[in-house]
Structures are given as C-alpha cells and as structure tokens.
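During the reporting period the student researcher (J.K.) took over the structure-prediction task from the postdoctoral fellow and processed the backlog of single-chain submissions. One of the processed entries is reproduced below for the supervisory committee.
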Amino acid sequence: MRVEILGQERRRLWRDEQKLEIVMSVGIDGATITEVAQRHDVTRQQIYPWRSELKKKGLLSSSANAVFVPVDMNAVQTEICGDRQHSTGMIELQLGCGRSLRFDSTLDGATLTRLIRAVEAA
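J.K. obtained the following structure tokens:
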C-alpha cells in the first residue's frame, strides 16, 4: 500500500512581536490560555514555551503576569497610643522574583509601588 501526502506542510513561523501579543492577551477581560490559543489557532502547549522564550530574551518581564489585589489598609488592627495611632500589623509580600518584602501597614501605596518595582528590577 502506498500513501502520498499532497500539499505543503502547514508550519507557521511566528515573529517575537506576534508571540508577545498573544502571550500578553492572556488575562485581558478574563481570557484564559485556552481561549487565547483557540482565538489565534495555536495550541496551549505553544503559549507556555513562548512565554519562557520571551522572558529569556528580555521582551517579557517576570512580573508581567503579576496580579494586584486591593488591600484595605484600614482593616489592619491598630492600637491607640496617646494622640497617635500605631500599627500593630506587619505585612509580608512574596514577590515573583523569589524575594519578599516586609513593611508596616502604614506605608503609603505610592512608596510601596516604587519599592516593588525597584526590587523586581534588581
């Protein structure tokens, strides 16, 4: 029995810009990797190595998949000492780069944001 396959093999070559666009679209409006893969006619298994490859090339930051969660700083227990409020709560934040930050709950959000960016960039 002889079998012939006619036509060209369908193998697309993706530019880094295209890969980055696809990888970055995961999570936008709640899009899952499966939905993004279907939308771009690729497999889920292609997106994961692309993510790693783009990180190695420096085109995708490690914190690109970071999720920011709102924290109610007023919910932290405080005790009143004289005329000033002193926070009794320390917050520990585990960063994606394997580092952790510990800070007092009275730290303002802008300073915390700058601190996180500096630590992750180091």
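The committee noted the following: The chain has a mean pLDDT of 76.
J.K. will present the remaining backlog at the next meeting.
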